[in-house]
Amino acid sequence: MNGIYIHVPFCLSKCGYCDFYSITRTIDKRRYIESIVKEIVLRSDYLIDNKIDTIYFGGGTPSLLKADQLKTILDALKEYFLVEPEHEITLEANPDDLSPPILESFRALGINRISIGIQSFDDGHLQLMNRRHNATQAVNTVLQAHQAGFERISIDLIYGIPGMSSESWNSNLLQAVSLPIGHISSYHLSIEPGTPFDQYRKRGRIKEVTENESVDQYYSLIKHLAEHGFEMYEISNFARRGEYSKHNLKYWQGGQYLGLGPSAHSYNGKQRHWNPRSLFRYYEMIEQNKQPEGEEIDLLTARNELVMTRLRTTWGLKQEEMVELFGMEEWNRLLAAAEPFMRSGDLQLIENNQLIFNKTGWFRSDGILTRIFRF
Ligand code: SF4
Fold this sequence. Notes:
By secondary structure, the protein is α/β, with parallel strands linked by helices. It is 42% helix and 22% strand. The strands form three sheets. A nine-stranded mixed beta sheet has the order 7-8-6-5-4-3-2-1-9, with helices on both faces. A three-stranded antiparallel beta sheet has the order 10-11-12, with no helix packed on it. The chain is globular, with a radius of gyration of 21 Å. The model has no long low-confidence stretch (mean pLDDT 96). The structure holds iron/sulfur cluster.
């Protein structure tokens, strides 16, 4: 089944660590909504078939759109795509944009999953990261979302924040698991070039946590969440009661998706496309009825992507799938490359010939993947 991603490139201010594409200028959103609707029409035959079961509003800050603007997009999607009865519609939201009436208006549109950008329950860390909410607002927003009828609530949490101690991270985790949520996405803070944090580091205003602190915080994350019923199903994603992100699973399990809006990426099983990372270049593309830039995926890239995406999940890579797509020889070649990491215990071949990462391998997974890729 296929999914649709809509990138909403607006933020009220820029967070210190963020390198997602978004603009902070206040602009009239009508042109954006019209462009998205036009893109839906222009690209409605992009996917191999037009049945979809996930819609994901990501950003930027989708919660800056009003309910009627979201409705215009959803109505257009329903006109041009067949939305399966068992569908998931996710909206990413920031706590400072939400209130009970706004949450109810989103829920009334059929949005059935909300992903709240909490990032931390520590006011000092929130200020350092230039987030607009405080810890009390974060907790209240989750409770309000629950009261508004959201049965599927996810939150984002960041660890490895400069100056973050183990105690502080553990108390973040304890706060998180006490809330009525079924999903947590948790990422290590990374300092990307060109972000305010990059400047702070250059000027010595912040200092990255040490590798040992990073490893400790990652292991605490896995341990605490497991103790509170959260299953780790992807390197940074945890679900209680089986509340996996159906949309994000498409990225890791080879599903097709159409990405709408500036900087959105699309994949139709054979090709990848990417929209311009600029709102105004995106408007131009749509006004000129142009398709985004793209590329065919060659065999070697497809092989590496299969290895990378499947190993990111705890279900790992099955021999059966790799052999079906690339042949037995390619599977054997992969096992030979993976052999040193199986010996060190980072990777493991389990029943049904599934290759998976072990606990020690998760933290080193980026480095290990590059060693088992083919170039
Ligand atoms: S982290 Fe989210 S809210 Fe903050 S600047 Fe980036 S996209 Fe905007």
